[in-house]
Amino acid sequence: MTDKAKAKGGKRKKLMPVLVILILAVLVSGGYTVWQLMHGSTNKAANVNKGEPAPAPVFFALDTFTVNLVNPDNDPDRVLYVGFTLRLPNEETRQRLNDYLPEVRSRLLLLLSRQNAASLANEQGKQALVKQIKEVLAPPLVPGQPSQVVTDVLFTAFILR
Q: Does Cell membrane show up as a keyword for this record (predicted)?
């Protein structure tokens, strides 16, 4: 054998253990990563299941409203037909709104009859109406009672004619 061949063979013998160690390190780290992902996701799922269940939503459906709308040309045929459901934080608020339903409907009718047909025709107008509904229902219905909190207003019917 020549000196060159002996040198190549010696380098290969020294390089083989290094390659084996490197391959083992990659396999171990890959296996650990897979194990961590599998083990970590089950821990997260267990933690979510241990938490308190989300409270059931409290909804208060109102009958539909039909009102004449304000418009610049005083056209009496501009009509809004709207139905919505209120999302409330608790059952007490739902019961209070139900007990004072005539007051609630009166506030809403006055608010809806002040609306402009042009502003309700787009998404921003509808979002503004949701905000106004929350604001008009917030004050106490009678003196001495707490304010109402309306979490959301969900439209169930909306016809603008």
A: yes
Helix-helix angle 101-113:123-137, to 10 degrees: 140
Distances (CA, A) of 56 to 73, 88, 108: 47, 11, 26
Long-range contact set of residues 18-22: C-beta below 8 Å, sequence gap at least 24: none
Residues 35, 36, 38, 40: what is their CA dihedral angle, to the nearest 10 degrees? Answer: 150
Determine the CATH number of domain 58-160. 3.30.479
pLDDT tens-digit map of 47-83: 555 677 777 889 999 999 999 887 777 666 789 999 9
Average model confidence (pLDDT) across the chain: 84
The average pLDDT across 131-153 equals 94
- Give the integer Cα–Cα distance in Å for 54 and 57: 9
Beta carbons of 135 and 149 less than 8 angstroms apart:
no
Rounded Cα distance between 73 and 87, Å, is: 36
